[in-house]
Specification:
Layout lengths: L26 H12 L6 E8 L9 E2 L3 H9 L5 H9 L5 H7 L7 E4 L5 E2 L6 E6 H6 L1 H24 L4 E4 L8 H14 L3 E2 L2 H7 L9 H5 L4 H11 L3 E5 L5 H18 L6 E6 L4 H14 L6 E4 L5 H9 L6 E4 L1 H4 L9 E9 L5 E3 L16 E8 L5 E8 L10 E4 L7 E4 L4 E5 L2 E5 L2 E2 L6 H12 L4 H4 L9 E3 L1 H17 L4
Parallel strand pairs: 6-7, 6-11, 8-9, 9-10, 10-11, 15-21
Antiparallel strand pairs: 1-5, 1-12, 2-4, 3-5, 3-19, 12-13, 14-15, 14-18, 16-17, 19-20
Helix pairs in contact: 2-6, 6-7, 6-13, 7-15, 10-11, 11-12
Length: 503
């Protein structure tokens, strides 16, 4: 947990106050590691996929985020002597195993989908190839980092879509589940489309805009509301957003704000930003009435911002009701993703190198069809409609497969195989989503700035059909398997089932 008075960090870093996150793992990762060592298989090369099964928030998509912090975690993996002493105190691990950890470093490969990319269920967001001793250990931390930020980025994208181009500010720090969630939630919210955050530390760490005005306590601290507004505009003449609902929004708050705006105009003071904030009551009614009052007073440029337990559904409703709000401060329901508090990412074994040096596909079966994994070393091919630039489908294929935009492409639903899509040559474009991040333990990827990721995310969202962005019952973008991967999966399922049938 991040402590107050952070003294040391690198931009975007998870290493705060000297805290090493190497032990940020579940105990069973380490018991398995010792087991792998004792079984003499710790150096067996394996491939793990990190993916999720269902879009969060009943969405038609998700936004992947958290890669920069995942990179930082991998770079800084190192057991301190204090860590080793603690593990020794558990009386669970052998001294030989503990000594092995002293030189632990990640030496494998990681491919990942860049932050801010639109993604869909079952697609590997990260693909890890490494000795099982290493690949197993990093599971928990990677899931913790990617799950949280991807959840909040997705929620933010939905909120911003509902706002229809209006500015959305992230105001959730005080309601976040601890400092870490507040800091990295703010980062993810910016990636998802927010234009600023109230979180000053996040602003410093990630170089993103920080926004805010004053609270009700400011108004209550002065003899009257008008004095409070006057004093605030004296202190911040360029940022005159006044909170008008402390006493009576329409009878005192808005009239007093108008009086102050008139005084600024008389003194030839021209704020860069001027307007009011509503934080309670019927926001549709109050904003429409306030708009009339501001316009009649000669301040059509004054903005009306709003907060008060907003989310994408309420914002969409307020829009339908003709609310005159153009800036939205969204807090609790965004930073906690209140209606969907977990992303649901998983980390599953997909392949293992055998004694002959061949990567052998692995598959997990389940009574729940949704939990049956896709075997082998895979890649993701995004298929775009050439004419519109919109996503037609995603194709999960084996790494060695080659696809050509100048040849016909046939896609089919891996569950309902009769659902097929045939694309003519030249009618589509292809893009591989996974990019190299670590090769042989060395980082080969440079993370963009948060604001650059945000810009990229906006371009990604523009490739979705509007139907896929609907808040309820969205269109589900097809995620298909290549014929080669589908056949491999079916063969492996049939083989396992056949071997388990009683004679």
């Amino acid at each position: 947990m991040v402590q107050a008075g952070i003294k040391k960090y690198t931009k975007g870093s998870l290493i705060m106050n000297g805290l090493n996150l190497t032990l940020l793992t579940d105990l069973y990762e380490m018991t398995m590691m010792q087991g792998y060592k004792q079984a003499h298989v710790k150096n067996h090369e394996v491939v793990f996929d990190l993916f999720y099964r269902t879009n969060p928030c009943n969405s038609g998509f998700a936004i992947v985020a958290g890669l920069e912090q995942a990179i930082d975690y991998i770079k800084n993996l190192s057991f301190s002597e204090e860590d080793l002493d603690y593990l020794r105190s558990l009386n669970l691990f052998s001294e030989d195993f503990i000594n092995e950890l002293r030189a632990f470093r990640f030496t494998g490969d990681i491919y990942a989908i860049p932050e801010g990319t639109v993604v869909f269920p079952k697609e590997p967001l990260l693909r890890v190839k490494a000795p099982i001793f290493e690949a197993q250990f990093i599971e928990t931390a990677l899931l913790n980092i990617i799950n949280h930020q991807s959840l909040i980025a997705t929620k933010a994208a939905r909120v911003c879509w509902a706002a229809e181009g209006d500015s959305v500010l992230e105001f959730g720090l005080r309601r976040a589940q601890g400092p870490d969630a507040g800091i990295y939630g703010a980062r993810a919210a910016m990636i998802g489309g927010c234009t600023g955050t109230s979180n000053v530390l996040a602003g410093k760490m990630f170089d993103v805009p920080v926004k805010g005005t004053h609270a009700h306590s400011w108004v209550m601290s002065f003899p009257d509301e008008l004095t409070a507004f006057r004093e605030y505009t004296k202190a911040f003449p360029d940022n005159c957003i006044l909170l008008v609902d402390t006493y009576d929004t329409l009878k005192s708050g808005v009239p007093n704000a108008i009086q102050v705006f008139k005084e600024l105009k008389e003194n030839n003071i021209k704020p860069k930003v001027m307007g009011i904030r509503l934080d309670s009551g019927d926001l549709a009614y109050l904003s429409k009435e306030a708009r009339k009052m501001l316009d009649n007073a000669g301040f059509p440029e004054a903005i009306i911002s709003a907060s008060s337990d907003l989310d994408e559904y309420l914002i969409a409703d307020l829009k339908r009701q003709g609310a005159k709000i153009t800036m939205w401060g969204v807090g609790t329901r965004l930073i906690t993703s209140k209606d969907c508090p977990a992303f649901g990412g998983v980390y599953k074994l997909a392949a293992e190198r055998n004694g002959e040096g061949v990567l052998v596909p692995k598959i997990k079966l389940s009574e729940n069809p949704d939990k049956v994994t896709n075997p082998g070393v895979k890649k993701i091919i995004r298929v775009y409609e050439k004419a519109s630039g919109k996503i037609k489908a995603d194709l999960i294929a084996l790494e060695d497969e080659i696809f050509d935009e100048n040849k016909p492409l046939k896609l089919f639903d891996p569950v309902n195989t009769w659902k097929q899509m045939k694309l003519k040559p030249g009618s589509f474009t292809l893009r591989e989503l996974l990019v190299p991040v670590f090769i042989n333990g060395e980082c080969v990827y440079e993370s963009p700035s948060v604001m650059d990721i945000r810009e990229y995310c906006q371009k990604e969202l523009s490739t979705l059909w509007d139907e896929a962005k609907r808040l309820t019952n969205p269109y589900i973008v097809p995620v298909d398997l290549s014929k080669k991967l589908y056949d491999l999966k079916k063969q492996m399922i049939d083989a396992i089932r056949g071997s388990n049938i009683d004679e």
